[in-house]
Amino acid sequence: MSYPKPWLSLEQQLDNLQARGLLVSDRDKALRCLQRMGYYRLSGYWYAFRERSGPCCLLDKQRSGKSQEKGELLALDAFKYGATFQNAVDLYVFDKELRLLAMDALERVEIALRVDVSHTLGQLDPFAYLRPELFHSTFSHVLNKDSGITRHHEWMSKHAQLILRSKEEFVSHNRSKYGFPLALWVACEVWDFGTLSTLFGGMREAEQDAIAARYGVSNGRVFASWLRSLNYLRNVCAHHSRLWNRNIVDQPRLPSVAEMPWVDPFAHSGHALARCFLLLRVLRQLLGVINPTSSWPSRMKEHLESFPDLSHLGLNLAGMGAHADWQACWD
Questions:
Q1: What is the extent of the structural domain holding 184?
Q2: Per-residue pLDDT tens over the stretch 114-133
Q3: Phi, psi (5° rounding) for residue 79?
């Protein structure tokens, strides 16, 4: 299929938006925003402003890639009444600050978990990551049917790449003085969040449970799902992607309501499970242990309460998965 959309100047882009019903009060400012942020990036924010069709079934079901049994609401070209260009910019700016705050918390969680994992495994062996018998059998012995190697082998390959690419002085120092392999508490400092969460997911249940218990989670497999989801969140934030109403592909498992009462609203809502507010609340839980005096919870709460007034478009924090009394469960 040939690409049908032509190149448009910034002025033509804005003309197109206005023709579709998007209100522009300051044309010069809007043009500067298009030049700085880009039409395509901003389109992810004004997408929610577009009118929707009634339920319909696409004739080409294969191309749609979705079940058509219940019908689908299609986004139309026309914008909802009252939608403005400034609304999209305000939502973009809110989302940018949301990502920055999330990354602030994710950095602290990642560093703390490096210590947790290296300290726990290091007690077994300073080079425990090299020993398959110290990990769960599904991680260290079951072969991937596609690659023919274990997940532990795959992890070791990624680990080796990170070591070889590292320009850190401490890696050069340890390599020249002691040689390879690097001790766990040294090697973990070059791991990214994905490498860390994958290794945690491959640990034995006893070690997983011991680390998870520190954060108030009795089941280490639940905690492992938290880390996988937070790694997804980190990748979204690191690539400056839209976050506020994104569908979270790798959703975390929930502990019992008895163990953590704040999970109750999420346990009864598929929408809430698939949006980022749950992951922000998970970060709130973890930071309460890592740094109980941190101002992050209050800063994030204040930011969430500053969500742009888009009530005329039917948009609010519910699009992020926040329930009506989210402030009560935040504190």
A1: 93-330
A2: 999 999 999 999 999 999 99
A3: -90, 155
Sign of the CA dihedral 51, 56, 59, 65?
positive
From the list 109, 251, 115, the residue with the least C-alpha distance to 193 is 109
Residue owning tokens 């400056």: 240
How many angstroms separate the CA atoms of 207 and 193, rounded? Answer: 19
| Per-residue pLDDT reduced to its tens digit, 199-240 | 999 999 999 999 999 999 999 999 999 999 999 999 999 999
The answer to whether the CB of 272 falls within 8 A of the CB of 281 is: no
283, part of any domain: yes
Task: Select from 319, 272, 305 the least CA-distant residue to 101.
Answer: 305
pTM for this model (two decimals): 0.91
Count how many domains the chain has.
Answer: 1
Q: How many CB atoms lie within 10 A of CB 251?
A: 18
Does residue 168 sit within a domain? yes
- State the pLDDT at residue 67: 47
Give 84's strand partners.
Answer: 23
Provide the 8-state DSSP code for 252: P
- DSSP percent split of the chain into helix, strand, coil, nearest 5: 60, 5, 35
Asked if residue 187 lies in contact with residue 164, where contact means CB atoms within 8 angstroms, the answer is no
In a domain, 60, yes or no: no
Spatial distance between the Cα atoms of 64 and 62, rounded to a whole number of angstroms = 6
Residue 141 corresponds to which tokens in the numbers above? 């012995």
Per-residue confidence (pLDDT) for residue 59, from 0 to 100: 63
CA distance 78 to 254: 39
